Amino acid sequence: MPFGQLVIGPPGSGKSTYCYGMYQFLQAVGRKTSVVNLDPANDRTNYPCALDIRDFTTLEDVMDQENLGPNGGVMFALEEVEQSLDEFVEQLKKLGENEYLVFDCPGQVELFTHHSALQHIFKRLEKLDYRLVVVHLIDSFYITSPSQYVSVLLMALRSMLQLDMPHINVLSKIDLLKSYGKLPFNLDFYTEVQDLSHLFPLIKKESPTFLGQKFAKLTEAIAEVVDDYGLVNFEVLAVEDKKSMIALLSVIDRANGYLFGSTEIGGDTVWAEATRQGGYLGNAVADIQERWIDYKEEYDEAETKEQEERMKQQEQDAPMSAEDEWQQALDDYQAQTGIRPMK
């Protein structure tokens, strides 16, 4: 039974970086992982690509043959894959039933808000017993503006309703948030998406003009719709932060059922057993708030000193054996999560 993640999000949200970071992280915990590129415009993947949609169709060919622009070309290319889905599925099956799959999807918003090609592809895979979860990345920059934050909430809600699958919204690039200026609320206000009426005074201040006030009323109405549904919330992610990756993967594993399957599915017995016993025990949002917003400079300084000391120690010590390296990895995991992995 293959498990996997469907990584979506608008351009610039960090999908390819996330796919590569998640691939490296999964490899580190011992999970057999393959990354699948579903973007016909992505001709320079920065991760090892096990299966590429460009082997079936390319954006350049579609644009030339159909006289389409980039956005229309991407949608047409996915429609072609949808129409010849059997061939694509056969290539997926060759990767193996025990392979954990990460799908890097195109960034055109309309593909996961109202166009049906991606939805039909994903639903077909679900019928073939693929256990998938949508990971929707949204640049954390958008929470710095109340009106833009409400707009991404609406986009996230529409995506959840359109794709109709287990769905995790993620605020990415949290490590850059401090550089955008001080937020009017703590991070948990934006992740929990509760009582958006607190934003209304800020929305009105954004655009004091007459036309701006008209748009402010529209934004408030949209916020009320999102509130009424009560579906949207966010996880947080800094790809290079181990705690952040551990916390997010624990949530993903619960969402697609990986956590409750056989520990031999992906070959990562240590990770699966450890997460069954409680997973990440910290508060991911609170940890991110402290690490990347409240005390970023202090943490950066401490990590720099720790890295310098580690490098000096490595220069003095002989190279570790493979067994010692594995033990060090287990010790690091216990230090991060408070859980002693099973041997």
Automatic annotation (TrEMBL):
GO terms for molecular function: GTP binding; GTPase activity. Keywords: GTP-binding, Hydrolase, Nucleotide-binding. Residues 299-343 are annotated as: Disordered. One of its GO terms (cellular component) is cytoplasm. The keyword rRNA processing does not apply. The keyword GTP-binding applies. InterPro entries: Gpn, Gpn2, P-loop_NTPase. Belongs to the GPN-loop GTPase family. Small GTPase required for proper localization of RNA polymerase II and III (RNAPII and RNAPIII). May act at an RNAP assembly step prior to nuclear import. Binds to RNA polymerase II (RNAPII). This is GPN-loop GTPase 2.
